[in-house]
Amino acid sequence: MLLKILSELNGTSGAEKEIRQALAAELEPCVHSLSTDKIGNLIVQKNPPLSAPKVMIAAHMDEVALMITAITADGFLKFQPVGGIDPRILVSKPLKINALTGVIGAKAIHLQKPKEREQALTIEQLYIDIGAKSKEEAEKHVKIGDYAYFFTEMEKLGQGYLKGKAFDDRVGCAILAQLLKRDYALNLIGAFTVQEEVGLRGATVAAYHVQPDFAIVLEGTVSAQMMEVEEGEWVTEPGKGPALSMLDNATLYQPQLLRQVIDLAEKMGIPYQLRRGHSGGNDAGRIHLSREGIPTIALSVPCRYIHSTASVLAEKDIEHTLNLVDGILKAIPHEFSFR
């Protein structure tokens, strides 16, 4: 399963090589061309260039991770997050740094003073233990600037769910790869982008270079369907189909495009939901502003616990997202217009 392969590989912002290589190997036999631009995006041309509309589908390869910023005299590693990570979820989590295993440590609760116990730990209070006894020993294996990754095996969870790391946005990458194996009567470009988690940087370059007539962004998005959140505040719900974005911190999506996607989903009998929150953003934030403007939509697979060591999604949401995008591509330009 491609998603399992992608989920278990490591590739944070600026270090997406493993993901790019896996996708290139998967797609090389069934596409016209593959190229890597100077920032690291993998650009895949499905067919020889056609006069038909040029459609770009984007999914980002990078995941959140940690960067080593210092090594203490005792051989512990200090770090900073790459992308948005809640420090509260980090204590005791296992990591991979190069070929090493490490564990995130902090002052044990038994040693904390009463006031310390009342406050959440900050990044500055955390460190990584790799079993080194000194700075010199640690430096034999780790350098400043190395990345530390969560490692989680992807596996089935309960009935119809998957658990794994980096579903944001390896699930989008897996869906895009499946679409690029199919044939469409249009000029289809796949953009596997880099550095989304640190400012949508790869998408900026890809959109400027490709110059599509229309763009679709595939994402793994936050789901707030959990015990602590009232039902009326759920942003998305796993198992209810792809989430269609209306607005977020980076994009106000065009209502006429959203309406067409909804109409098509209902015609095809594909379940969908509206993303009912405006926080965050995705590659659409840069794509839709490129050059003279690019009509853009975003479809996301709801994931619980994104930006953590393990996320959870519903398998059928992957299928429904794939089928809806397939329907959009087949409907262009006669039944789906972005003009």
TrEMBL record:
GO terms for biological process: proteolysis. Belongs to the peptidase M42 family. InterPro entries: Peptidase_M42 (IPR008007), Peptidase_M42_aminopept (IPR051464), Peptidase_M42_dom2 (IPR023367). The active site is at residue 196. Zn(2+) 1 binds at residues 60, 168, 219. It comes from the Bacteria. Binds 2 divalent metal cations per subunit. Pfam families: Peptidase_M42. Zn(2+) 2 binds at residues 168, 197, 307. GO terms for molecular function: aminopeptidase activity; metal ion binding. The keyword Amino-acid biosynthesis does not apply. This is M42 glutamyl aminopeptidase. Its cofactor is a divalent metal cation. Transmembrane segments: none annotated. It comes from Desulfitobacterium hafniense DP7. Keywords: Aminopeptidase, Hydrolase, Metal-binding, Protease.
